[in-house]
Design brief:
With about 200 residues, the chain is mostly helical. It contains 8 helices and 2 strands.
Protein backbone atom coordinates (compact mmCIF):
# COMPACT_ATOMS: atom_id res chain seq x y z
CA UNK A 1 0.00 0.00 0.00
CA UNK A 2 1.51 3.35 -1.01
CA UNK A 3 1.65 6.30 1.37
CA UNK A 4 -1.47 8.05 0.05
CA UNK A 5 -3.50 4.84 0.11
CA UNK A 6 -2.41 4.33 3.71
CA UNK A 7 -3.35 7.90 4.70
CA UNK A 8 -6.73 7.48 3.00
CA UNK A 9 -7.33 4.25 4.93
CA UNK A 10 -6.47 5.98 8.22
CA UNK A 11 -8.71 8.93 7.33
CA UNK A 12 -11.55 6.52 6.61
CA UNK A 13 -11.15 4.98 10.07
CA UNK A 14 -10.92 8.44 11.63
CA UNK A 15 -14.17 9.42 9.95
CA UNK A 16 -15.90 6.32 11.32
CA UNK A 17 -14.64 7.18 14.81
CA UNK A 18 -15.69 10.84 14.61
CA UNK A 19 -19.07 10.57 12.89
CA UNK A 20 -21.37 7.67 13.74
CA UNK A 21 -24.64 6.83 15.47
CA UNK A 22 -23.20 8.04 18.80
CA UNK A 23 -22.67 11.55 17.48
CA UNK A 24 -20.28 13.88 15.69
CA UNK A 25 -17.05 14.72 17.51
CA UNK A 26 -15.41 16.73 14.70
CA UNK A 27 -15.31 19.95 16.81
CA UNK A 28 -13.63 18.10 19.66
CA UNK A 29 -11.10 16.54 17.25
CA UNK A 30 -10.16 20.02 16.01
CA UNK A 31 -9.79 21.21 19.61
CA UNK A 32 -7.61 18.20 20.51
CA UNK A 33 -5.31 18.79 17.54
CA UNK A 34 -5.05 22.50 18.34
CA UNK A 35 -4.43 22.06 22.06
CA UNK A 36 -1.82 19.38 21.37
CA UNK A 37 -0.11 21.76 18.92
CA UNK A 38 -0.78 25.15 20.52
CA UNK A 39 1.88 24.78 23.22
CA UNK A 40 4.70 25.04 20.65
CA UNK A 41 7.48 27.59 21.13
CA UNK A 42 9.68 28.56 18.20
CA UNK A 43 12.21 29.99 20.67
CA UNK A 44 13.35 26.64 22.06
CA UNK A 45 11.44 24.15 19.86
CA UNK A 46 9.53 22.75 22.84
CA UNK A 47 5.86 21.87 23.18
CA UNK A 48 3.66 21.22 20.19
CA UNK A 49 2.17 18.04 18.81
CA UNK A 50 5.34 15.93 18.78
CA UNK A 51 5.25 13.47 21.65
CA UNK A 52 1.47 13.57 22.20
CA UNK A 53 2.39 14.65 25.72
CA UNK A 54 -1.23 15.42 26.65
CA UNK A 55 -1.42 11.75 27.64
CA UNK A 56 0.59 12.63 30.76
CA UNK A 57 0.32 15.05 33.70
CA UNK A 58 0.62 17.98 34.08
CA UNK A 59 -0.60 18.66 30.51
CA UNK A 60 -3.36 16.07 30.78
CA UNK A 61 -4.70 17.83 33.90
CA UNK A 62 -4.42 21.39 32.57
CA UNK A 63 -7.84 23.04 32.92
CA UNK A 64 -7.50 24.37 29.36
CA UNK A 65 -7.62 20.74 28.18
CA UNK A 66 -10.84 19.91 30.05
CA UNK A 67 -12.93 17.33 28.21
CA UNK A 68 -10.25 16.36 25.70
CA UNK A 69 -9.97 12.92 27.31
CA UNK A 70 -13.29 12.22 25.55
CA UNK A 71 -11.71 12.70 22.11
CA UNK A 72 -8.53 10.87 23.07
CA UNK A 73 -10.72 7.91 24.02
CA UNK A 74 -12.68 8.15 20.75
CA UNK A 75 -9.45 8.07 18.74
CA UNK A 76 -8.13 5.09 20.70
CA UNK A 77 -9.98 2.85 18.22
CA UNK A 78 -7.95 4.36 15.38
CA UNK A 79 -4.76 3.62 17.33
CA UNK A 80 -5.93 0.04 17.80
CA UNK A 81 -6.46 -0.29 14.04
CA UNK A 82 -3.14 1.39 13.21
CA UNK A 83 -0.78 0.50 16.09
CA UNK A 84 2.34 1.66 14.24
CA UNK A 85 0.95 5.19 13.84
CA UNK A 86 1.81 7.57 16.69
CA UNK A 87 -0.85 9.22 18.82
CA UNK A 88 0.68 12.52 17.73
CA UNK A 89 0.00 11.72 14.08
CA UNK A 90 -3.49 10.36 14.79
CA UNK A 91 -4.56 13.43 16.80
CA UNK A 92 -3.25 15.95 14.27
CA UNK A 93 -4.56 14.04 11.24
CA UNK A 94 -7.95 13.69 12.96
CA UNK A 95 -8.09 17.45 13.54
CA UNK A 96 -7.17 18.22 9.94
CA UNK A 97 -9.61 15.65 8.56
CA UNK A 98 -12.39 16.88 10.88
CA UNK A 99 -12.23 20.27 9.14
CA UNK A 100 -12.74 18.53 5.80
CA UNK A 101 -15.58 16.36 7.15
CA UNK A 102 -17.27 19.52 8.45
CA UNK A 103 -17.21 21.05 4.96
CA UNK A 104 -13.87 22.84 5.03
CA UNK A 105 -10.98 22.41 2.61
CA UNK A 106 -8.57 19.46 2.68
CA UNK A 107 -5.58 20.30 4.88
CA UNK A 108 -2.14 18.98 3.99
CA UNK A 109 -0.79 16.71 6.71
CA UNK A 110 2.53 14.88 6.97
CA UNK A 111 3.03 11.79 9.10
CA UNK A 112 6.20 11.15 11.05
CA UNK A 113 5.61 12.44 14.59
CA UNK A 114 6.75 10.24 17.44
CA UNK A 115 5.25 9.68 20.88
CA UNK A 116 6.92 10.51 24.18
CA UNK A 117 7.26 7.67 26.67
CA UNK A 118 6.50 9.79 29.73
CA UNK A 119 5.55 13.30 30.82
CA UNK A 120 9.09 14.70 31.08
CA UNK A 121 8.60 16.64 27.82
CA UNK A 122 5.24 18.15 28.82
CA UNK A 123 5.21 21.90 28.23
CA UNK A 124 4.58 24.25 31.13
CA UNK A 125 0.92 24.81 31.96
CA UNK A 126 -0.24 28.21 30.69
CA UNK A 127 1.09 28.07 27.14
CA UNK A 128 -2.35 27.81 25.54
CA UNK A 129 -4.23 31.00 24.62
CA UNK A 130 -6.69 32.42 27.15
CA UNK A 131 -8.86 35.06 25.45
CA UNK A 132 -10.03 36.39 28.82
CA UNK A 133 -6.51 37.78 29.32
CA UNK A 134 -6.87 40.14 26.37
CA UNK A 135 -5.29 40.86 23.02
CA UNK A 136 -1.70 41.27 24.20
CA UNK A 137 -1.76 37.84 25.84
CA UNK A 138 -3.10 36.32 22.61
CA UNK A 139 -0.34 38.02 20.66
CA UNK A 140 2.30 36.76 23.06
CA UNK A 141 1.04 33.17 22.76
CA UNK A 142 0.51 33.15 18.99
CA UNK A 143 3.69 35.09 18.18
CA UNK A 144 5.60 32.50 20.25
CA UNK A 145 4.44 29.93 17.68
CA UNK A 146 5.38 32.12 14.70
CA UNK A 147 1.89 33.44 13.88
CA UNK A 148 0.68 37.00 13.24
CA UNK A 149 -2.59 38.86 13.92
CA UNK A 150 -4.27 37.53 10.77
CA UNK A 151 -3.36 33.99 11.83
CA UNK A 152 -4.86 34.64 15.28
CA UNK A 153 -8.19 35.59 13.68
CA UNK A 154 -8.17 32.64 11.28
CA UNK A 155 -7.25 30.04 13.90
CA UNK A 156 -9.63 31.46 16.51
CA UNK A 157 -12.46 30.96 14.03
CA UNK A 158 -12.39 27.28 15.01
CA UNK A 159 -14.30 28.31 18.15
CA UNK A 160 -17.38 28.66 15.95
CA UNK A 161 -17.32 24.91 15.24
CA UNK A 162 -19.51 22.95 17.62
CA UNK A 163 -21.15 23.92 20.90
CA UNK A 164 -19.88 25.09 24.27
CA UNK A 165 -20.04 22.34 26.91
CA UNK A 166 -19.42 23.06 30.58
CA UNK A 167 -17.14 20.03 31.07
CA UNK A 168 -15.08 20.85 27.98
CA UNK A 169 -13.91 24.36 28.70
CA UNK A 170 -11.66 25.96 31.26
CA UNK A 171 -14.06 28.93 31.37
CA UNK A 172 -16.73 26.76 32.98
CA UNK A 173 -19.05 26.82 29.98
CA UNK A 174 -19.87 30.51 29.99
CA UNK A 175 -21.79 31.53 26.88
CA UNK A 176 -20.47 34.07 24.44
CA UNK A 177 -22.43 37.25 25.17
CA UNK A 178 -22.80 38.26 21.57
CA UNK A 179 -21.99 36.97 18.12
CA UNK A 180 -18.52 37.89 16.95
CA UNK A 181 -17.35 37.71 13.37
CA UNK A 182 -13.79 37.63 12.07
CA UNK A 183 -13.90 41.35 11.26
CA UNK A 184 -15.04 42.15 14.81
CA UNK A 185 -12.29 40.02 16.27
CA UNK A 186 -9.71 41.67 14.00
CA UNK A 187 -10.83 45.12 15.19
CA UNK A 188 -10.71 43.89 18.80
CA UNK A 189 -7.07 42.87 18.33
CA UNK A 190 -6.18 46.16 16.67
CA UNK A 191 -7.88 48.58 19.09
CA UNK A 192 -7.16 47.97 22.77
CA UNK A 193 -8.54 48.31 25.34
CA UNK A 194 -10.82 45.45 24.35
CA UNK A 195 -14.17 44.34 25.73
CA UNK A 196 -14.07 41.10 27.69
CA UNK A 197 -14.42 38.17 25.32
CA UNK A 198 -15.55 34.82 26.63
CA UNK A 199 -15.04 32.01 24.14
CA UNK A 200 -15.35 28.27 24.37
CA UNK A 201 -14.35 25.38 22.14
Amino acid sequence: MDDQMYVNAVKSDIRKALVNQKGNSCPLAVRLAWHASGTYSKHDDTGGSYGATMRFPPEKEDGANAGLDIERDILQEVKRQHPDLSYADIWTLAGAHAIEIAGGPPIEHKLGRTDAQDGSACPAVGRLPDASQGAEHLREVFYRMGFNDEDIVALSGAHTLGRCHKVRTASGGGRVRERWYAADFWRWLQMPPAPQYLGCA
